[in-house]
Amino acid sequence: MTGVAFPPGFSFEPLQRKHQRHLFDCGQREVNDWLHTRTLQHQDKRLSATRVLIDQDRAVTGFYTLATGQVDFGDLPVDLARKLPRRALPVAVLAWLGVSKTRHSEKLGDLLLAQALRDCYDAGQTFAFVAVILDCVDDRAKAFYQRWDFAEMPGQPYRLFLSSQTLTAMMTRPI
């Protein structure tokens, strides 16, 4: 994967106050609430970064939020943690991802996830991390991420991870 091309008529931008995020509805209350009420606060405090997909009418049709975090080595699968120090380890966090429910059939979620992973990979060239982690809101979201090789964290069925090695393999394999 070398980059993500969004369909004609879409633009991809860092979230700004001018974006009409209050009109966004992906069908998931928690995801909508995050975008409507907390994204800019967290972004202003440098806790996370949100990027939005804007359609030709300037409507927010999708978004994702990335952050950094730590995970204890003991929370990782044994095969991933085996050669790592026994301490809190750096991770990239895919905190939120949503697509307008009127656009679910257009595969924009796949494109947004691909771009989010590209952003994580690019950041990982400067700031190292052992995995990308995320928390799923439901079984449908879990199935979506598992199609992208995310796996369950031991004992936490709705917390998924993608190792940095798997991410690198995704980003560097020929198309």
Q: Termini separation (Å)?
A: 6 Å
CATH fold type:
Aminopeptidase
Number of helical elements: 5
Order of helices and strands: EHEEHEHEHEEH
Broad shape: globular
Helix content estimate = 25-40%
Q: In total, how many domains does the architecture comprise?
A: 1
CATH architecture, by name, is 3-Layer(aba) Sandwich
Mean pLDDT: 92
- The CATH homologous superfamily name equals Gcn5-related N-acetyltransferase (GNAT)
**Tally of strands:** 7
**Biggest sheet: strand arrangement:** 1-2-3-4-5-7-6
Largest sheet: 7 strands, mixed
* Unreliably modeled segments: none
Strand residues, percent: 25-35%
- The secondary-structure class comes to alpha+beta
The first-level CATH class is given as: Alpha Beta
Task: Report Rg.
Answer: 16 Å
Describe the structure.
The chain is an alpha+beta fold. It has one domain: Aminopeptidase, CATH 3.40.630. It contains five helices and seven strands, in the order βαββαβαβαββα. The protein has helices at residues 29-44, 78-81, 108-124, 139-146, 164-172; strands spanning 11-14, 49-54, 60-72, 88-99, 131-135, 151-153, 156-163. Strands 1-2-3-4-5-7-6 form a seven-stranded mixed sheet, with helices on both faces. α3 packs across α5. The radius of gyration is 16 Å and the shape is globular.
